[in-house]
């Protein structure tokens, strides 16, 4: 079903299973038990609140408007629109031309296809085509990729789609710290930013540092984070797939394989330096994403490593992605169409020339 891929990944039929347990276990090892916890949803909401409070030019418009902000800032700065993506995205781009800082919220990024002309032709290209005279400080945000049981029309990952467009910045948060720091960076940035969240992570709690809770906290755009250091194989992932990669690394450690997990955070610009430095250390690479395999994020990472670090590779690069089919609706088929933890484990073992069983590893 996956053709040349050799794997699949995600938490589908029951999104509360597996990923959440792995997140809690791994998080508890990195932070003390007394560390403050925050859900991704609250992290995003707090970032929006703080940026709106700090800058009167920031306003929200779209669907699924963030909780509590309408009551606090009023209907002139929080506009809950009808389901008219082309309309409110176009208005948002025009407002950005005027010098405001709109945050455009899609109920799901699958609906952004209705507004793709404004995102690409009106927003992404304006700075270049105006010789730098027009900046477009706008953020397009919302759930990206598959949720659970929502069918093919609502289950696509747009990281590679928007990541291929000059003029856009594309961010993909995983943890609560990612969500706060990257959304603040996106709102402050002078260029259009596509901010790809994950619906299945909204309710997940992550440890968060005092530094990340400060109103001045901001993460750099274009910088990946090494979530787990290792020496035998590099695993790149983004959004909810980072949690699966960390779970796979735990399993691999029991078999004596030390996996380094890189949370990409930013798809465009891509932190090629961190990826290549890791591969030069581990000499092996597994790329992980839930999007389609052809022309995917993993394909771009493979190209970068082959161009810059080919002589360091001791094994063929393994790409793990979703199946090259529209997302099935049935839960059992849906699970088969996206990567799973055991696929990552098998791929990593192949790169290390360890024998693998066809039976589930995890």
Automatic annotation (TrEMBL):
Swiss-Prot/TrEMBL cofactor(s): thiamine diphosphate
Catalytic activity: N(6)-[(R)-lipoyl]-L-lysyl-[protein] + pyruvate + H(+) = N(6)-[(R)-S(8)-acetyldihydrolipoyl]-L-lysyl-[protein] + CO2
SUPFAM superfamilies: Thiamin diphosphate-binding fold (THDP-binding), TK C-terminal domain-like
Keywords: Oxidoreductase, Pyruvate, Thiamine pyrophosphate
InterPro entries assigned: PDHB_mito-type, THDP-binding, Transketo_C/PFOR_II, Transketolase-like_Pyr-bd, Transketolase_C
Role, per record: The pyruvate dehydrogenase complex catalyzes the overall conversion of pyruvate to acetyl-CoA and CO2.
Protein name: Pyruvate dehydrogenase E1 component subunit beta
The organism of origin for this protein: Rehmannia glutinosa (Chinese foxglove)
């Amino acid at each position: 079903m996956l053709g040349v891929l050799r794997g699949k990944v995600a938490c589908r039929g029951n999104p509360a299973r597996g990923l959440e347990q792995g997140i809690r276990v791994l998080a508890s090892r990195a932070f003390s038990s007394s560390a403050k916890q925050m859900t991704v949803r609250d992290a995003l909401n707090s970032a929006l609140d703080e940026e709106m409070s700090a800058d009167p030019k920031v306003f929200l418009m779209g669907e699924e408007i963030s909780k509590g902000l309408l009551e606090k800032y009023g209907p002139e700065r929080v506009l809950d629109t009808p389901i008219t993506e082309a309309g409110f995205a176009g208005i948002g781009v025009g407002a950005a031309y005027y010098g405001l800082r709109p945050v455009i919220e899609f109920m799901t990024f699958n609906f952004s296809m209705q507004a793709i002309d404004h995102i690409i032709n009106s927003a992404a290209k304006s700075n270049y085509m105006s010789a730098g005279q027009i900046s477009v400080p706008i953020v397009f945000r919302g759930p990206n990729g598959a949720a659970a049981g929502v069918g093919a029309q609502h289950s696509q990952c747009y990281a590679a789609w928007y990541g291929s467009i000059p003029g856009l910045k594309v961010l993909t948060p995983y943890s609560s710290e990612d969500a706060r720091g990257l959304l603040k960076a996106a709102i402050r940035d002078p260029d259009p930013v596509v901010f790809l969240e994950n619906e299945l992570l909204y309710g997940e709690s992550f440890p968060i540092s005092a530094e990340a809770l400060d109103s001045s906290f901001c993460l750099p755009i274009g910088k990946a984070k090494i979530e787990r250091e290792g020496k035998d194989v590099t695993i790149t992932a983004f959004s909810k797939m980072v949690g699966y990669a960390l779970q796979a690394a735990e399993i691999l450690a029991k078999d004596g394989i030390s996996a380094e997990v890189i949370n990409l955070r930013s798809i465009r610009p891509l932190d090629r330096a961190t990826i290549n430095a890791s591969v030069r250390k581990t000499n092996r690479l597994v790329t992980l994403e839930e999007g389609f395999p052809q022309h995917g994020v993993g394909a771009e990472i493979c190209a970068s490593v082959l161009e810059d670090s080919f002589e360091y590779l001791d094994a063929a690069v393994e790409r793990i992605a979703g199946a090259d089919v529209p997302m099935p609706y049935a839960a059992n088929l849906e699970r088969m169409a996206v990567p799973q933890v055991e696929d990552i484990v098998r791929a990593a073992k192949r790169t290390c020339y360890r024998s693998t069983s066809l039976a589930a590893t995890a």
